[in-house]
Amino acid sequence: MVPLLLVLLLALILFGAGFALKALWWIAIIVFVVWLLGFVLRAGDGGRKSRWYRW
Fold first, then answer.
1. Collapsing DSSP states into helix, strand and coil, what is residue 14?
2. Are the C-beta atoms of 20 and 28 separated by less than 8 Å?
3. What are the b/e assignments for 9-29, b being 16+ CB within 10 Å?
4. Rounded CA separation 24/26 (Å)
5. Which of 26, 51, 55, 29 is nearest to 38 (CA)?
6. Which pLDDT value is given to residue 52?
7. How far apart are CA 8 and CA 52, in angstroms?
8. CA 20 to CA 25: how far, in whole Å?
9. Could you give the 3-state DSSP secondary structure of residue 52?
10. pLDDT tens by residue, 11-55
11. CA distance 43 to 51
């Protein structure tokens, strides 16, 4: 009974880690797209050296 519980616990942990990694990939893609949009918006300013973000 204990080995079965350990296998189920391991499967649950691996499933949770896989879901978290997939969510982190989506967040990374969204951040990358926003970063690229920043270059496009900055290039459209007419040559001014201003930042499109505040930090």
1. helix
2. no
3. eeeeeeeeeeeeeeeeeeeee
4. 5
5. 51
6. 55
7. 49
8. 9
9. coil
10. 888 888 888 888 888 999 999 998 888 777 776 555 555 555 555
11. 10
Given the structure tokens 């050296």, which residue do they identify? 49
CA dihedral 33, 35, 41, 43 (to 10 degrees): -120
Q: How many residues does the chain have?
A: 55
Residue tagged 């391991």 (tokens): 10
Count of CA atoms in the C-beta half-sphere (13 A) of 50: 8
Tokens of residue 34, six digits: 């926003």
CA distance 22 to 16: 10
